[in-house]
Amino acid sequence: MTNMDLFQTPRGQAIVLMAPALAVYSLFAIWPMIDVVILSFQDWNGIRENRDWVGLQNYHHILYNDPVFWVAFRNTVIWTILSVVFPPLLGLLLALGLNQRLIGRAPLRAIYYLPVIIAPIAVATMWRWMYDPFFGLFTQMLTDMGLSRWIVDWLGDKEVALYSIFVAYVWQSVGFSMVLFLAGLQSVDKSLIDAAHIDGANRREIFKHVTLPALRPTITIVLVLSTISSLKAFDIVYGMTGGGPAQSTQMLALWAFTQSMQIFDYGRGSAVSVVLLAITLVIVVPYMRWSQRREEEAR
Amino acid sequence: MATVEIADLRKSFGAFPVVHGVSMGFKDGEFIILVGPSGCGKSTLLRMIAGLEDVTSGTISIGGRVVNALSPKERNIAMVFQNYALYPQMTVAQNLGFSLELSKMPKPEIEAKIKESAEILGLTPLLDRKPSQLSGGQRQRVAMGRAIVRDPEVFLFDEPLSNLDANLRVKMRAEIKALHQRLGSTIVYVTHDQVEAMTMADRIVVLRSGKVEQIGTPMDLFDNPKNMFVAGFLGSPAMNFLTGRLAADGSAALVLGNGERVALARRPPAAGDSDVVLGVRPQDISPDPENGTAATVKVIEPTGTETHVLVELAGQEITCVLGARLDINPGDEIRLSFATPAAHFFDAKTEARLETGSTKHEG
To answer: How many CB pairs under 8 A join A and B?
Structure first.
């Protein structure tokens, strides 16, 4: 087959046209992913010329001899559960509210979406200032309201820090769910709502029997994306506490980074990454399959 | 079953008026069709009767009770939508029973009602299917079933057949008519299709730009249209209009713009100084090789049973329905007679019909 022939078929044209993107994607996304899996079976400090095969030693270490891994694991689980519940729920409520005919609806939508486009590291910095135990906004507000006994060291208290970061995370991510739900609400058939009115349904019943079923595909997407982004929570934690105090806000993604880039144990860092990848796939793949089946049944 | 009374009903969306003071009354058990071009306010009117749209002013009464402030549920009406509006996640049976379930009717009673309406509409084998597994006609039937189970006083139909293909539309038209005869309930039906209006209605309401143009039985509107709009809207193909002046010599003839004379069956009362519009249905035009007015054939459309011929006459296009097999070609000249007693005359300025009272049809 000559070069000319290759261009003649649609398949050939597709391959040729996709080649540049495919090359970049392979080099910067697919190959690093494969390399991380290989690295997780090796011992390497990032500088040495040779990467030594150590078999399952890295996995053995992080699972049996690394207390921080389990703290990070527990935090990641809590974080994921909270992120799957709160941002989507608040996003849905905001979307329902901003789907009504309100004055200033368009600017409000933009304002609620704004935090999504701010870099997480900037969000972390803003919120770190607001959480400052002496000069921060929250401390000031509580003092002014005469509630100074409620003041805690938001990011310095081991029991509170994780949840303080989570509030900032909700503030940043709620707009994302909101926009997806708003888009989903546009697809709700108006005549179905009319039909439900005629059938005698009240607002709650219309929501249950018309809006919610129509939002089902959107809910699947929002939950899957929330799960994935919460499992890989890194930048906002890194920017606010760096995993402290005393590893109390350590996360798997952050711990993988710390192991590799700060402790220079690329083998262990990669092993943590691979475990995180496995957890993500175990949660997301079955959920997507299940919801796809449900959608097909409903169709 | 109930009467529907509408008094000086108005509706504005913001500052934009859509319905301008409409009054009409429907008798108990009547099949009423609201017809008009898109944007005439017919759907808005129906939605106001349903309670889906607020009334700006005026009153709507159903069964003698003013329902302006009542919710759709309290009006005891049922509505069938153009896109069927079936709940996609529910089976046919659940769709049928949904309103009854919401009204807290006991389960066995709901099941009996579902069974009964499914039998009326031939839906029994489909009860466990989802709407997505049904054809367009079946979905339409489920939508009607959902209306029937509630025993409403008034059925409202919003262009229910527009999403169906031509054959199915003819079939469903007959089914809806049969259903009306069987249930005997009041039906208010909106369509832009004048054939649906003519074939199904007890009475037709012709609307234009939010105003009632004329109300009457199909044949009454067909034979005695009040104005050019009603005359042109009902009937297929549409009525032809030829503008000219009545012959100065007092004979029964119309003189067209180019001086051509068109012989008439009678001379209408003069409309003062203004031009007169002759309205003739395509079926009432006949070939007349000796005394007819000359016209040039432009397009020939054989339908099998008859032939639609588009001709040009004094710069105006005229459609006529002629015999099944014709030996003519585009470009030919034919002579046509417009001297039919069924012709109508309109004032060119006001578009109102010049002769009041009914036109007698002879032959």
So the answer is: 63
Using only C-alpha atoms, chain A has a radius of gyration, in whole angstroms, of: 24
How far lies A101's CA from each of A90, A295, B253, in Å?
A: 19, 30, 61
Contact flag B88-A299 (C-beta cutoff 8 Å): yes
Structurally, chain B folds into a number of domains equal to 2
Structure tokens at B114: 């579902």
Residues in chain A within 8 Å Cβ distance of B89:
213, 298
Do B210 and B94 have their domain in common?
Answer: yes
Q: Do B184 and B111 sit in the same domain of this protein?
A: yes
Spatial contact of B145 and B96, defined as CB atoms under 8 Å apart: yes
CB B44 within 8 A of CB B11: yes
CA-wise closest residue to B234 among B210, B277, B204, B212:
B204
Low-confidence ranges of chain B (pLDDT < 50): 360-363
Please tell me if residue A198 touches chain B, with a CB cutoff of 8 Å: yes
Q: What was the pLDDT predicted at A4?
A: 61
Spell out which residues of chain A touch residue B146, defining contact as CB-CB under 8 Å.
195, 199
pLDDT > 90 fraction of chain A, expressed in percent and rounded: 39
CB-based contact A198 B78, cutoff 8 Å: yes
Count of structural domains, chain A: 1
* Three-state SS annotation for A196-221: HHHCCCCHHHHHHHHHHHHHHHHHHH
Choose the weakest-confidence range: A203-217, A279-293, B199-213, B329-343: A279-293
Angle, helices B166-183 vs B107-121, to 10°: value is 130
Long-range contacts of A137-146 (CB under 8 A, 24+ apart): none
A52 token code pair: 């030594």
Beginning with the edge strand found earlier in the chain, give each strand of the sheet holding B4-13 in spatial order.
B16-26, B4-13, B57-62, B65-66
Give tens-digit pLDDT for A174-193: 999 999 999 999 888 889 99
Q: Do A200 and B99 touch (CB under 8 A)?
A: yes
Q: Does A210 touch chain B (CB under 8 A)?
A: yes
Residue bearing tokens 């009525």 = B239
Percent of chain A whose pLDDT exceeds 70: 97
Examine residue B359 and state whether it is found in any structural domain, yes or no.
no
State the residue range of the domain holding B36.
Answer: 4-229
Paired sense of beta strands B77-80 and B154-158, if any: parallel
Name the domain boundary from B229, B263, B281: B229
> What is this structure's pTM?
0.79
Is A243 a member of any domain? yes
Question: Does the beta-carbon distance from B87 to A205 stay under 8 Å?
Answer: no
Q: Rounded to an integer, what distance in angstroms lies between the CA atom of residue B308 and that of residue B347?
A: 27
How far, in Å, are A48, A57, A64, A266, B176 from residue A52 at the CA level?
Answer: 10, 11, 21, 11, 81
8 Å CB contact of B72 and A195: no
Distance between CA atoms of residues B217 and B198, nearest Å: 9
A-facing residues of B in 38-57 (CB < 8 A) are 47, 50-52
| Domain that includes residue A279, residue range | 58-298
Which of B52, B82, B103 lies nearest to residue A197, judging by beta carbons? Answer: B52
Q: Which of B79, B89, B130 sits opposite A198 (nearest CB)?
A: B79
